[in-house]
Write a structure and sequence with these properties.
single chain, alpha/beta, Spore Coat Polysaccharide Biosynthesis Protein SpsA, Chain A, globular
Length: about 280
Amino acid sequence: MQNNLYLSIIIPTIGRKDDLRNLLNSIVNSKLNIKYEVIVIDQNKDLIDDIIEEFKNLLPIFHHKVNFIGLSKAKNYGAFVASGNIVCFPDDDAEFCTNTIDIALKYLFEKRADCVFGKCVDKNTGMDSICKFETNETFLNLHNFEGRFVEATMFTYTKLIKEYPFDENMGAGTLFGSQEGYDLVYRLLSDGKKLFYSPCIVFYHPNKVNSKSTKDEIKRAFFYSCGFGYLCKKHNLIKKFKKRFRIIRLTLPFIYFIMHRKFKYYKAQYMGMYIGYVCL
């Protein structure tokens, strides 16, 4: 490890309490032998104050209450106030494995990478969560990076995030509610940065069941699809947009008659993609 290593673990959080406690416990259980800090970007009111109090003698924790909503804005804010020269941004419902941080930092230095990414698995089943991850480790490029990154598994240099901040128009809490990680990776790779993926860097993240029928799921589908449309327009990914848009458009009549309970979910995706694309 580098002698000047100082890791800032930046945790934007809203609406979660027990999950945040589990994440903080996982940092304690990592038994880190490096200089580090935990920066909690709190977008609640008083929801987690007792959690912070619980861990203040267990972790070098800094509690930042903010008056804005937005995941990308919170990550950028965290990088701005960070004292460390390396940052990571775990989801507030994720957990570190005991060796996650050690392995990630080892890869970051040995591969001389600008960023490293890992994978997420469900703690109960051990199966991939969030997406299906590739099984081979490799440097990323503009042709192979899909399935090999999730921004919540990223370890990178603080100065790089300051140079390439997350797009604050994108991500949870905004109209364009997803794809901020894709946008960041695309910009970094387009500028020739060295990004590395290894499935050995493992985070626990619950694999949530999606019935595609509840109001919250339909709302999420709309905002996430707005993010996808925004991304495609921003980076001129016309073929990518047309392919997904055409598939949903052609299958909507079938879904209406065969899977009517899920029709509103896919209609929300369709409308979100369109709105996200035309609004930029």
